Amino acid sequence: MLTPKNFSFVFDQAIPAVSNHITILARRNELQTPRLGITVPKKKVKKATDRNKIKRIIRESFRLQRHQLPNVDIIVIAKQGIGQMENQALVIQLEKLWLKMTLRCNQPAK
Length: 110
What we know:
This protein is an alpha+beta fold. It has helices at about 5-10, 50-65, 85-105, and strands at about 15-20, 20-30, 35-40, 70-80.
């Protein structure tokens, strides 16, 4: 779980992976495991139950993909329209973004 200090660390030099409904920001960490932070703004998803459902889906997707991810701190940011997505569509989009983020993080630094 990321703290506010960790969020600042990621925002400083983030490697982005973006889709219509989700933005993933990542930055290498010195740990042996990836870590996850999630933001689902009230402005984007009105009902708390819907925000919590989205967070559960994101956490579960992360848990399933964790062993394939590099050692990075990850922030998942929900964007407009995510509340109207079907659960399965959200899972598929997350899988594509995990892959995109992994490929970008594994590229040599420029």
